[in-house]
Sequence to fold (489 residues):
Amino acid sequence: MNQVFRGYRRADGGAGARNTVAVIPSVFCANVVVEAVTRQVINTAGILHHQGCCQLKPDLDLVTACLIGIGRNPNVGAALIVSLGCEGVDAEEVAAGIRQSGKPAETVYIQKGGGTVRAIAQAVQTAQELSRQISAQPREDTDLSHCVMSIKCGASDATSGMASNCVIGYVADRLVDLGGTVIFGETTEFIGAEHILAGRAADPACAQAIYGIVADMEARANRVGVDMRRGQPTPGNIQGGLTTIEEKSLGAIVKSGSRPIQGVLRYEDSAAGKRGLWIKDTPGRELEILTGMAVAGSQCMLFSTGRGAPQGFPVMPVLKICGNPHTFAAMPADMDVNAGEIIEGKKSIEEVGEEVLRELIAVLSGKTTKCETIGYTNLVDFYTKGPVI
Amino acid sequence: MDIIVLQVNLKDNVATAFAEIAPSSTVKARDPQGRERPVEVKDAIPYGHKLALTGIPALSPVIKYGETIGRASQDISAGEHVHVHNTESCRGRGDWEGRA
Fold:
């Protein structure tokens, strides 16, 4: 088994599976400029989002930390921050935070730069320079222990907990044993299964943190005064045979494998320097968890699905592992690996797990995933908790 | 060929179907040790859905993966479809907040 991938070495010790210029609006008002840049300049990816202004300080701090985290993701070779100029997030703070990792980060301002059209011209030119500057960097042999793999399940059905999540659990254990990092989230989908996760905590503080984030998530939902069902599990989950949040959770945690859980990261935290299996406190919705995992520094996500989840992220390849053989046959352009053969009794969890590990190494080394290839990569948003004001 | 439904854990009182099952048919429930036993199925069971392996009285736990996934909201008899019409969650119940 090849335990090396071909990655882009970063000054801060990370290793990228991609080498992209991230074009990051500090506020949603700069999205139009970012879109123009990404249409014009090759090897750029826009981080289009809806935050950055008219929010309270904790949320503005969280958005700032997340934008820095995305810029510092090992898959990003350089960053361009586009600002309107009057927003709550400080674009210079974002650029400075990214530069601390040793990669170039530039800023362009719409108001100071003479308006939208001139800002587009300036941003295109700056992005062109950054794109050419990083384009000569070669890939190098990189030990798989540099891999920060995130894992998620979405559009789940009854096959998820019995096939595709089992496969991801197998790969998670393999990667942890090889010295790598695995992060899972979806705190909502710990409800009813938190005692099992807490039993795998490396120390009592971690166990307490697991119970704490689940209690907070459940209390937030319960304050609305309705049954969580339809929010979680979703109507699609219910059609697929999942009856309660507890059932969904018990199937969802299978993807975390069996190794000890080292600790709980906050939504805006980086996983730099962390080894082994970690939890990140996120909701289950794709926008927020994909973003949170890219913020952590994950170079690749394994995403399990039963009903057929097509989503991806701009700078983090997402590999779809499908547990339902009918869905795999129905959505061949969205699903990367067929774990449905486990349900059909044709392959073992280990066989499909080894197949996924080989595919993960290929993707880390440059092979594109299906959603990445067709540009279904726009799932960006931050898990803010306060009001828009 | 016999239709197989899967019991994930020996403690489970439900099994999952990975085929469409017609009402009033007989299927084989396979436990995690590979042992099979016949179950008379009463309802139509869609792909991926559950059926009761035993009677489950109202308010008793419904068990899958060896863990409680909720409770019966009415009496469920062996072979019945187990889903949102007869099983409710005990978590995330904001609608229960403030109740004695």
Q: What stands out?
A: The domain at 4-93 of chain B is CATH 2.30.130.110 (Archaeosine Trna-guanine Transglycosylase; Chain: A, domain 4). The interface with chain A takes residues 6, 8, 16, 18, 46-50, 62, 64-65, 67-70, 82-84, 87-95, 97 of chain B (CB under 8 Å).
